Amino acid sequence: MTPLHQVIINKDTKINPIWIMRQAGRYLPEFREIRKQNPNFINLCLNENLSSEITLQPLKRFAFDAAIIFSDILMLPYGLNQKVEFEKGFGPKLGEVNIDEMSKLDEVDFVQKIHPVYKAIKKVSTNEIINNKNTIGFVGAPWTLLVYIINQQSPKKKLKEDFFKNDFLINRILLILEKFLKIHIKNQIDNGANVIQIFDSWAGLLEERDLPNYVYSPTLTLVNYVKSLNIPVICFPREIKNYKEFCEIVKPDVVSIDYNVDPRKILNHIKIPIQGGLDPKILLSDKENLKKEAIKYLDIFKDHPYIFNLGHGVLPETDPNMMDYLVKTVKDY
Ligand code: 1CP
């Protein structure tokens, strides 16, 4: 059994597997080299030779226990024929939604449009480096995808004032997302993904009263779907205030915590395996501090099934030597 499955399925507390959100990315010079020659990010994700190579880059350097496929949550709206572009220094830029077109789209056309993502998963999961490691497939949660689809850009920049105005449109999009997220998950699993992570990066934007409608219900549907395929599912409802309530309602196999969560408090509230937490900015400090902070998490979770990870993605300015030091610290614990 792989280390991740040992923790998730057997609730093993003796090992602490490690992988890192955005482990394949801009902090690695070998990634930046490929990226420089491939200015179109979507096309890079659709090049199964390069995207599988990028996925494996961090595993060649560090003793990570899992590969996360190099793709993006926005490949889903792209597959739904919404225009998606990544502009340097700006981030994602999406076109207007054509809901009638989107409603007519069928499964075959969707899969056809993004099938290199599945081919990349097959290449990664059958690579010898992955022996006794997991291949993590992922999707954006319906709420987070809805945010990008309607807002057409990162809500970090600004959230449209009339975002919630068109209830009918929102409900139609959520139904379409449910259908195609299931298709996207199924295809990733069929091609070798053996853990699924659901990223709800913008869950924290919602008022508590809106969580049942936009986060709990649609995520629960997906979690139950992944479970029905006998694959463990990790949820990352970033920056919600009440992780306990989320876990009680949605019941993922693992919950990934952000860096604002107090790990000691969460330990008393949550029975399921926990992942992550360490602030990515700690990797920008010094080795002594990094060790201290990493060990803090390992100590707190020493009797709880725990997968080491960060509280959000690794920052592009991170020194790969610090990542190396972190992995060694966790492995030597
Ligand atoms: O070189 C570049 O400029 C591209 C940067 C980049 C990368 C490396 C983007 C654009 N996406 C990715 C890959 C990516 N995205 C992965 C690959 C696997 C890995 O983790 O190594 C994953 C899992 C994602 C998931 C993703 N994309 C999320 C959820 C996680 C999170 O960070 O909160 C989100 C919100 C996105 C949207 C997105 N794609 C890219 C950027 C810069 C963003 C965020 C935009 C924003 O701030 O709103």
| Beta-strand residue fraction | 5-15%
Q: Which descriptor suits the 3D outline?
A: globular
How many DSSP helices? Answer: 14
Instruction: Identify low-pLDDT runs.
Output: none
Note the main sheet. 7 strands, parallel
**Considering DSSP H and I runs of 4 or more, what fraction of the residues is helical?**
40-55%
The H-and-E topology, N to C, reads as HHHHEHEEHHEHHEHEHEHEHEH
CATH-defined fold name: TIM Barrel
Number of domains: 1
Broad CATH class: Alpha Beta
CATH architecture designation: Alpha-Beta Barrel
Say which molecules are bound, naming each kind only once.
Answer: coproporphyrinogen I
Describe it for me?
The protein is of the alpha/beta class and 333 residues long. The protein contains 14 helices and nine strands. Helix 4 (48-61) runs parallel beside helix 7 (107-125) and helix 9 (167-190) packs parallel to helix 10 (211-228). The chain is globular. The two termini are 21 Å apart. Bound molecules: coproporphyrinogen I (1CP). Coproporphyrinogen I binds next to strand 3.
